[in-house]
Amino acid sequence: MSKKLTITAIKKRKGEKPLVMITAYDALFAKLLEPSADMILVGDSLNMSFAGRNDTISTTLEQMIYHTNAVCKGAPNSFVICDMPFGTYTCKEDALHNAIKVFQKTPADSVKIEGGTDKAEIIQHLTENGIAVCGHIGLLPQSVRSEGGYKVKGKSADEREQLLKDAKAVEEAGAFCMVIEGTKAEVAKEVAQSVTIPVIGIGAGADVDGQVLVFSDMLGFFEEFTPKFVKKYLEGATLVKKALQEYADEVVNRKFPTEEHIY
């Protein structure tokens, strides 16, 4: 049985061994993922891959609490991070109230907040009140509507400068690590080198302190669209469909159940 990482242990991995983060939304997959992952993120991406929505915006705090409890049940030895959904941390007071609710109603080890310099004050308020925070800079899925789509960051000198400021602000606010998403690889590398806490990439190149992927993307269950940064390690949808078709054929042809499956 693997030993659960602490925040101290996660910080010590900076510049040492890359961190492995993966998303999970239920106990079944969390149990399967636990032996290989350092951290499990209960991402608000569940609104898309689990609930079939077009973006993450309509995810509720109640949904996140429900799924976080399921993941913690399935992976009790994993460091679990719960995404704070859109609209739950628009001010310091609401952010603390909602983060406390997550900590009181789930065994989550941390919450995740999207934003850089604009959210530093909120992150600091949480960390000063006993809430562990994982930051998230670069492409911010919760801002997709205001930005008019998913746009790669770090393409201009201004964006590079802002990302460096965001990373420093998140670090100084007390976050123990941060995700950097959808960012030019050379800029993400520079960002990772500019701070002393681990920077976990998703669509941000290999020269960061770890990687995170959505499990349904990397296992090939989500068929509608595959982002450029996703590597499929399994053709999950094809395998499931094949198995289901075999089951359906056997039911129709009365080949299942056989004697070994009958009481």
Compose a concise summary of this entry.
By secondary structure, the protein is an alpha/beta fold. Helices cover 40% and strands 14% of the residues.
Nearest-angstrom radius of gyration?
20 Å
Major sheet: arrangement of strands: 7-6-5-4-3-2-1-8
| Helix content range | 25-40%
* SSE order, one letter for each helix or strand: HEHEHHEHEHEHHEHEEHH
Residue fraction in strands: 5-15%
* Count of DSSP strands: 8
List strands and helices in order, with pairings:
Blueprint: H1 7-12, E1 19-23, H2 27-33, E2 39-42, H3 46-49, H4 61-74, E3 79-83, H5 92-105, E4 110-114, H6 120-127, E5 133-138, H7 144-147, H8 157-172, E6 177-181, H9 185-194, E7 199-202, E8 210-213, H10 215-218, H11 236-252
Helix pairs in contact: 2-4, 5-6, 8-9
Describe the structure.
This protein has 263 residues and is an alpha/beta fold. The chain contains 11 helices and 8 strands. Strands 7-6-5-4-3-2-1-8 form an 8-stranded parallel sheet. Helix 2 (27-33) crosses helix 4, helix 5 (92-105) crosses helix 6 (120-127) and helix 8 (157-172) runs parallel beside helix 9. The chain is globular.
